[in-house]
Write a structure and sequence with these properties.
By secondary structure, the chain is α/β, with parallel strands linked by helices. It folds into 2 domains: 13-211 and 335-393, 3-Layer(aba) Sandwich (Rossmann fold), CATH 3.40.50; 237-319, formyl-coa transferase, domain 3 (2-Layer Sandwich), CATH 3.30.1540.10. The protein contains 17 helices and 11 strands. The protein has helices at residues 22-32, 61-66, 80-92, 104-107, 112-115, 143-149, 169-192, 202-209, 211-216, 255-265, 280-285, 287-298, 303-312, 323-327, 330-334, 374-380, 385-393, and strands at residues 13-17, 36-41, 70-74, 95-98, 123-128, 197-201, 237-241, 247-251, 316-319, 338-341, 348-351. The chain has a 6-stranded parallel β-sheet, sandwiched between helices. The longest helix is centred in the middle third of the chain and has 24 residues, at 169-192.
Length: 397
């Protein structure tokens, strides 16, 4: 595999007024691809995600994940000198990303409409909870709230209660659409010579991901039932206990696989033609009884024995791993997917971004300390040390 150090976003500068997850996840991916990402943070406190927890040797888990390969610039944007520095920075920027509170960027004169004449090539990406316009425009939006508003919680969890996802899925969805939207805008600029606005709504990002249950419940039909970790509409497809106390996840997709599963995994070939189970709809209707049969078949087996049977039958399966298992996952190790990156608390493991390209290696640089690059960036913008010291004394940085 021939790889060079030329990356697709080399030479692109991104300025980001970001906090929490959606915008930082977007811009970290731009940094992975070679972009210079300048993260503008509030003096002294910075991105509030820095204080979410202290699980990574004193640093926050969310922050370490979403902020490698960036430069941290502290600016108090209520100060005229700080705002002047930001404007100077935008003169050199290709992209401005922001996920401030609803309307905050516009009040500071940083909306696309306010910027496009002065910076006609600038791409402005606004990440908000509900989008620009509409009755919910100014409504506060956090990940859990969007999981609820989008209907995700209503179809996730047990029959007794809905549940949120175990990670920030609404933020992740919005960050992914912002990332791809900015890439599209950069390609478009190559054709037109003009910048554009990318308006990303967390709600719309999640509703896009909810289209299967939406169509399943089309024209007032019943939505898919909550089924815990099992599939709501295919069975057997989900977790089953194994005799050694572990849990195996398996999934059948068709009637051919059902026959093989009965024969090679359950050792009950006659079950394939049982009138209670010979169609997926019947297996769904008789889920509890079939679960008992499968559990009984696995009761005297270890996880390795169950997986061996499933593999022999070519039935899709997985182990229900905990975080410690994922850190040590043999497939990630075999594909050499972990790297060490610098941080204020020393070297840390960091996963290479998905999507291996044969021509370049993604950027994997340090997680920045708060304001680590403030002086150097301001000097790039023409401020001498005296000016920088004055700004710091006045609370501008």
């Amino acid at each position: 595999m021939s790889q060079t150090q030329v990356r697709p976003l080399d030479g692109i500068t991104v300025v980001s007024l970001e906090h929490a997850i959606a915008a930082p996840f977007c811009t970290r991916q731009l940094a992975d691809m070679g972009a210079r990402v300048i993260k503008v943070e509030r003096p002294e406190v910075g991105d509030f995600a820095r204080a979410y927890d202290e699980r990574v040797r004193g640093m926050a888990s969310h922050f370490v994940w979403t902020n490698r390969s960036k430069e941290s610039l502290t600016l108090n944007l209520k100060d005229e000198q700080a705002m002047a520095a930001l404007v100077d920075l935008l003169e050199q920027a290709d992209v401005l990303v922001q996920n401030l509170a609803p309307g905050a960027a516009a009040r500071m004169g940083l909306s696309y409409e306010a910027l496009k004449e002065k910076f006609p090539k600038l791409i402005v990406c606004d990440i908000t909870g509900y989008g620009i316009g509409g009755p919910y425009e100014t409504k506060k939006a956090y990940d859990l709230l969007i999981q609820s508003e989008s209907g995700f919680v209503s179809v996730t969890g047990s029959p007794e209660a809905g549940a949120k996802a175990g990670c920030s899925i609404a933020d992740i969805a919005a960050g992914m659409y912002a990332y791809s939207g900015i890439l599209n805008a950069l390609l478009l600029r190559q054709k037109t010579g003009r910048g554009s606005q990318v308006d990303v709504s967390m709600l719309e990002s999640m509703v896009e991901w909810m289209n299967f249950p939406l169509y399943y419940a089309f024209e007032g039909a019943e939505p898919p039932p909550r089924a815990g970790a099992a599939h709501a509409t295919i069975f057997p497809y989900g977790p089953f206990p194994v005799g050694d106390g572990s849990t195996v996840m398996l999934g059948l997709q068709n009637e051919r696989e059902w026959r093989v599963f009965c024969d090679k995994v359950l050792s009950k070939p006659e079950l394939a033609d049982d009138a209670d189970y010979d169609l997926n709809s019947k297996r769904i209707a008789n889920r509890d009884a079939l679960t008992a049969l499968i559990t009984q078949a696995f009761a005297d087996l270890t996880m390795d024995q169950v997986v061996e049977r499933l593999e022999d039958a070519q039935i899709a399966n997985a182990r229900v791993n905990e975080m410690k298992d994922v850190w040590a996952h043999p497939q990630l190790k075999a594909r050499d997917r972990w790297r060490e990156i610098p941080s204020p608390v020393g070297q840390l493991p960091s996963l290479l971004p998905p999507g291996i390209n044969s021509e370049f290696v993604p950027r994997m640089d340090a997680v920045p300390a708060l304001g680590e690059h403030t002086d150097s960036i301001l000097k790039e913008l023409g401020r001498d040390q005296t000016a920088v010291d004055t700004m710091r004394k006045n609370g501008a940085i």
